[in-house]
Amino acid sequence: MAHSNYTSSPPLRILVANWMISPPAQRLLDGIQSFAREHGLSWDLEALPIQQTDTMRLALEAERPDGVITGFDAPDVITSLMATSMPTVFLRHGVDEPPPTRRRLSVLRLDFGEVGRVAARHLLERGGFRSFGFVEATHDPSWSASRGEAFHAAVASTGRPFFRLSAAEGVFQASVANRRELSALADWLRALPKPAGVFAATDERARDTLLACREAGLEVPRAVAVVGVNNDEFFCRHVFPNLTSVAIDHEKIGSVAAAELQRLLERRRPRRTAFVVPVLSVEARASTAPISQGGPLVRQALDWIEAHACEGVGAADVAKALRASRSLLDLRFREIGGGTVLGALNDRRLREVQRLLRETDDRIESICGAAGFSDASGLRRLFKRRFGLSMRQWRTKNRL
User: Fold this and answer.
1) Between vectors from CA 29 to CA 23 and to CA 30, what angle results, nearest 5°?
2) Domain coverage including residue 49
3) Stretch 243-258: mean pLDDT, rounded?
4) What is the pLDDT of residue 351?
5) Same domain for 220 and 270?
6) What is the pTM of this model?
7) What are the E-state strand segments in the chain?
8) Rounded to an integer, what distance in angstroms lies between the CA atom of residue 347 and that of residue 343?
9) Which of 3, 131, 184, 346 gives 20 to 30 Å between its CA and that of 173?
């Protein structure tokens, strides 16, 4: 519904201070603008890149915008924000504690765990890896750590060794790796049991990983397969081999942040809430081409499971649809460290359970049937075992 009380007045000046140089940041802005248009809001957006901390402080103190959406966590910026009463949505990347609350300030904590889980699923589908690794971003930002932790948890079931290249060890302190840093990354890559599946926190870090593989004499993807994040065309298509990347729904982040800012402009109560950042897709390119003969069959099975798992089907139905034996399918899944067909069915159903818990008020029994489970009690036990929380607790923590 349009809010005519805003459209009849001069446009509101909205300051958006975040990662405004990259294409993902532009998509975040697009999400904010789309929300404003859809709701008949007259907003003029001013975007500031994160490097301009001083400009951000001056904008707050001198221009006094009508509202702010920001991911800045520099102490002087937080101090400036705390000293004002302007409606502010603070984007927090990871699980670190948000700044002190004040009137008309909402905290939207962005959970990037799904990014790591999707990257892991992609590599597990390709299969045949003897080890897995994660390359952090700059000096251990929380959003990078959350991606790595989720990736580690997702590949742990394979029993294969896991290695993390930590920026805290003195590597990757700048946005672009220098020669010393690339050499350190090359040494780290040489030590991984091969073939290795490597997930990098960003496309920039994945690009550096590909360059380091070249320096180390490691063939991609035969020796090392590499996945990045953000699906930035500049990094993904203009590097050899072309980079596979996880595409995040940055427009959705912008839309959710804009909706929260509108709450504050309407003088509704501020909130602290978590938002699981959705993944649009994995754009598969040459850096993760299959290295196992079982990979194509497993990918077909996972595609079928994605489409039909919530229809109450079983492992035998998957085998029948693919015209393969159940034993062959399970063998191919084990070969690539991907568990079993039944495990893949349950993974897909649990993702649907999470979606329904987060987005609806449906009863547990209804969610059970809608997700393809036949036994609500069994679902409760499986959910608690997998996520460490009851379904009710998880819903309370993750509701939008």
Assistant:
1) 90
2) 4-111+250-279
3) 94
4) 84
5) no
6) 0.67
7) 12-18, 43-49, 67-70, 88-93, 105-111, 131-135, 162-165, 196-200, 224-229, 244-248, 272-276, 279-283
8) 6
9) 131
